Amino acid sequence: MKIRYPQMGIALAVAALLAGTCAVSAYAVPETETAGTSTAVTDTTTAANESDDTLWKAEISDYDSSLSLVQYEEVTPSEEQATAIQNATTLKEVTVPIGSSGTEGSANIGAAASMAASVSAGQFAFTTYGYGHCVGMSQNGANNYATYGGYDYQSILFHYFPGTTLVQEGAGSTVTANGVTGSYVDIISQIVYNEMSSTMHPEAMKAQAIAAYTYIMFNGGSVNNVILKPNPPQNVIDAVSAVAGQALYYDGSYALTVYGASSGGATASAADIWGR
Hints:
The structure is a single chain. By secondary structure, this protein is α+β, with helices and mostly antiparallel strands. The protein has a domain at 83-107 and 130-274. It has helices at residues 13-18, 79-89, 110-117, 139-149, 153-160, 184-196, 202-218, 234-242, 270-274, and strands at residues 24-28, 92-93, 99-100, 123-127, 137-138, 165-168, 174-177, 180-183, 222-223, 246-250, 253-254, 259-260. The strands form four sheets. Strands 2-3-6-10-11 form a five-stranded antiparallel β-sheet. Strands 8-7-9 form a three-stranded mixed β-sheet. A hairpin with a 5-residue loop joins β2 (92-93) and β3. α5 (153-160) crosses α7. The N and C termini lie far apart (48 Å). The relative contact order is 0.16.
């Protein structure tokens, strides 16, 4: 069998993400390749075995820093997509609390199925299922919403935790994680550094900081099931410091703001995963 690769710059995953879903992506696959062109193969595919009867499996070293073999092209959303983004990111601004989300999440899950049905000859589609428990905030999703959708940290939080209210508490809060007690910035910066490293978008890191802090406070200010990564770089510390003391509330108390690496375009119900 002849191996074919996605054509660069035609990835529709970005448009799907802007429309509110990332569950299904479509790519155009050229039937023929013109001699002398290199649009169909990225630099990272040179290690592929050209044999007609051998499939090639990528090594981790073949991926770029974004863990992608395909170099995606950022696209400008259509007028309809731009309106959807604006509606999803419009917040109810008040003095205290900072803002509140609606009672429903803004993900258009049905768009994934409709996009799959629209795939025609010369294209292929795939569905992804995420990595982790898929409940609450998707860290990769948060990063992509910030990078490609222009979401700020409040929009990210309200997207993943519908029905919540963002409240500014005292920035001098002390929390305990894995037996280590410290200030908000000290402890949360180490958690964010472990969960997201220092490579993700600052708005995604801010959302992660608030989710981690709120999760700790939901559990009485002390947890033992998170990992601290010491010596976080300055950009992580800056992102955490910018939202110091902010927490999400649900029904008058701290929300259960769990998070995971990826949810594949649609989050799962906590009742389905944990029975509550």
